[in-house]
Amino acid sequence: MLKGKTAVITGSTSGIGLGIAEALAAKGADIMLNGFGEADAIAALTKGIADRFGVKVGYDGADMSKPDQIKGLIDHATAELGRVDILVNNAGIQFTAPVDEFPAERWDAVIAINLSAVFHGIHHVLPQMKQRGWGRIINIASAHGLVASVNKSAYVAAKHGVIGLSKVVALENAETGITSNSICPGWVLTPLVQKQIDALAERKGISVEEAARDLLGEKQPSKKFVTPDQLGELAVFLSSDAASNMTGAALTMDGGWTAQ
Ligand code: NAD
Predict the structure, then answer these.
(1) Domains of the chain by start residue, with CATH
(2) Do you know which PROSITE patterns this protein is assigned to (predicted)?
(3) pTM score, whole prediction
(4) Which residues are catalytic?
């Protein structure tokens, strides 16, 4: 279904980004991975996906907090894969503290990676998408793009910003064949969330399993983690022709979190 298409997925060496990269590759898209990790592990990942799905898989280690490296990522993907048809803005980090104790440099880092990187990626990829009259921009926001939680000022601000930016891109390109949408996951069990579970277990003096149950119980009515595979399938749908008239949307997959 995506044979002949190419996708750049930021932050795809782990978690949700990796799930989306694999789902797009499974449908035949050539992909460019990005994110941090050990060189050997990344080489194995790249080869594994290429062998399993028979697609081209590249890797670029751009640091998404650096605008010039984001341009480099789009240029590299265009040179190696021939074009960029689908951009998945996924890389993200978390930091938690009350606003009055939130270190300014952590605020800057979260905003740079979770929000400004989304702007820079879109800015650099749009001209070629416009030229071809086809493009898919998929922004991984969060339930925290729609509602707030304590101690997550930078993350919540960035994710609300991503949804707003995504809507502007949708409107500016409504007649161009390019769509721009946000996906808003609830809790997904990835390294980013495991850190929060471990911290909760330590703070409450409970087991990691109990902490995971508490975390889900507090916000996610389904009491089940969303999976990277499920989010991958949503990204596949957004990349399909069936989704050509879906733009400017913020799609939840959050076990009912934001229905409350
Ligand atoms: P993760 O920590 O498993 O993966 C993050 C990825 O981003 C990794 O590949 C990492 O190497 C990469 N990355 C981090 N900083 C980077 C940088 N400066 N430059 C390039 N790559 C960088 O996290 P995840 O849970 O898979 O999160 C992915 C996205 O999904 C994030 O935007 C996050 O906010 C969002 N999200 C996650 C959850 C969840 O419950 N896990 C829920 C809602 C939204």
Answers:
(1) 6-188+226-259 (3.40.50.720), 189-225 (no CATH)
(2) ADH_SHORT (PS00061)
(3) 0.98
(4) 155
